[in-house]
Amino acid sequence: MVIRRSTKAVTHESSYRYRRVSDIPRLVAWRRQLLEAHARLRLAFAAAQDAARDGADVSDASRDLLLYCHGFCVALDGHHRGEDAMLFPALVSQYPEASRVVRMLRQDHDMISTVLTRFDIAVKSAESPTILAQHLEGFAAIMESHFRFEERELEPLLDQLELHAELKDVFGPL
């Protein structure tokens, strides 16, 4: 058997009719992609917080927040849906001991969805920038706690995870 190495894959040539490819960089990329998705969500959230802080006029602040937060909320929702539908089942399948952590992360996703809905109602109701900023501060704490827990608990597993899927399907439209 001859083994050819490249930066993209390790290809095993044997007597089999088709080559077998072990996509080593793809396996490691799941951890990196999770961290990058969280970084992009943090940046989008910071833009929403800036819009709340900078809005002197309630209608202007609400309009800016609708713009920033709609995009952020769609991205975060897509991120969580992808994790729930693809990443978490793959993790539990390959690492049954991760079931408790995955269950906790799914509970976080439900709680975050509820918080986002409440915030969306406050924005559409043209709450004052102060009230909107308070919503965002509370949400920031929840979101950051969730991201840190997820990163801490899943990073070691993601380096070895075998999941053949599109990034946008797993981590949302980021």
How many strands appear in the DSSP assignment? 3
- Helix and strand succession? EEEHHHHH
Residue runs with pLDDT of under 50 for 5 or more positions: 1-28
Beta fraction of the residues?
5-15%
The helix tally amounts to 5
* Helical content band: over 70%
Assembly type of the shown chains? Answer: single chain
Which shape, going by the Cα principal axes?
elongated
Task: Write down the overall mean pLDDT.
Answer: 75
Which strand order spans the largest sheet, edge to edge or round the barrel? 1-2-3
What Rg is obtained from the alpha carbons, in whole angstroms?
20 Å
* Span of the ends, CA to CA: 41 Å
The biggest beta sheet is recorded as: 3 strands, antiparallel
Coarse structural class: mainly alpha
What does this structure look like?
The chain has 174 residues and is mostly helical. It contains 5 helices and 3 strands. It has a 3-stranded antiparallel beta sheet, with no helix packed on it. β2 and β3 form a beta hairpin. α1 runs antiparallel to α2, α1 packs antiparallel against α4 and α2 packs antiparallel against α3. The longest helix is centred in the middle third of the chain and has 37 residues. The termini are far apart.
